[in-house]
Amino acid sequence: MTLRSRQAFTLVELLVVIAIIGVLVGLLLPAVQAAREAARRMSCSNNLKQIGLAIHNYESSTTRLPASWSHPGNASGDGWSSQARLLPYLEQMALADEIDFAAGYGVAQINTSTGLQRLASFRVPTYLCPSEVNDNVRNDSSGAPEHYPLNYGYNAGPFFVFNPANGTTGEGVFAANRYLGFNSCTDGLSQTLAFAEVKAYTPYFRDVAAGNSQSIPTSTAEICALGGSFKSTTGHTEWVDGRVHQTGVTSTFGPNTEVLCVQGGTTYDVDWTNMREGRSTTDTTYAAVTSRSYHPGGVNVVLMDGSVQFKAETIDLVTWRALSTRAGGEVVREN
């Protein structure tokens, strides 16, 4: 009787095949990840495009731009954000209809199938980048939904934001308790930042009240030295709150600059505000609130003309700050 030889892989052959597959996966995985990130970055750009269009529609309807922070005139001090005022132009009428700008955002609630829920805790998709790793509701101490974060901050200028004693505001396009217009952008709409990316749940220092005549910092170490009351996770977690550390951005430092400060033995990449808007009638708000993203190499921004651009983190700081002034008279160079 003739015996047939069995056709099968030897152990060596099997190991070779596994090794080849491993090499192929190693080669393909970065390409797949890069493609996914490119898609997320494109979606992020589309969000900013919608925000830019909403700004133009708001201005066309009201002949002015929304204030960055508008004090409701009551004791709460819960000043609404420009993002809240743009809701009707972002197909968010259900939320917009529930807002009473004469009252603070802290009392705004929506009746849902499970009961009353804070308006501030609702997710606004257009305000969130798909690359954000902390796209989660922020709960209060009892575990109830309290706030929802965001990834796009209004341009508050380079450093000085608001002086409550005399009402003067910074050089950005969106100002506290003040409604500017397109005619305020004498540098040109195409040469002026509107919104830029920020990361949610940013650590920050606040309310140090270090003085009313501060110079713009020249190093990140100066922020650590200034310090203040430290919050490890709550920056840019409140899309309703118009204060700069929650819904704004400044050009004190360039995109994705790490402002590394040690607190309690842990190093954090922080933002800083001298005094939160509405918390003092005398202390000026200065702020170093850095534009950050999860995109390699830079951040997405929308300019006042509605165009969306990717600004490299290597952009010249002078140019970056010039983009954040509405009437600085600077000549803006390309990236």
Present the secondary structure layout.
Blueprint lengths: L10 H52 L6 E2 L9 E2 H4 L7 H4 L12 E4 L2 E4 L19 E2 L5 E3 L4 E4 L4 E3 L30 E5 L4 E5 L14 H6 L2 E7 L8 H4 E2 L10 E4 L2 E4 L1 E3 L11 E4 L9 E6 L4 E5 L4 H7 L12
Parallel strand pairs: 7-12, 10-15
Antiparallel strand pairs: 1-2, 3-4, 5-6, 7-9, 8-16, 9-17, 10-11, 13-14, 15-16, 17-18
* Radius of gyration from CA coordinates: 24 Å
**Main sheet properties:** 5 strands, mixed
The number of domains is 1
Helix content: 10-25%
Gross geometry: globular
InterPro entries: DUF1559, N_methyl_site, Pilin-like, Pre_pil_HX9DG_C
Protein name: DUF1559 domain-containing protein
Domain DUF1559: 33-316
Pfam family, one: SBP_bac_10
Folded structure, characterized:
- By secondary structure, the protein is of the alpha+beta class.
- It has one domain.
- Helices cover 23% and strands 21% of the residues.
- The chain has helices at residues 11-62, 82-85, 93-96, 221-226, 244-247, 317-323, and strands at 69-70, 80-81, 109-112, 115-118, 138-139, 145-147, 152-155, 160-162, 193-197, 202-206, 229-235, 248-249, 260-263, 266-269, 271-273, 285-288, 298-303, 308-312.
- It has a five-stranded mixed sheet with strand order 12-7-9-17-18. The protein has a five-stranded mixed sheet with strand order 8-16-15-10-11.
- A hairpin with a 2-residue loop joins strand 3 (109-112) and strand 4.
- The N and C termini lie far apart (81 Å).
- The mean pLDDT is 92.
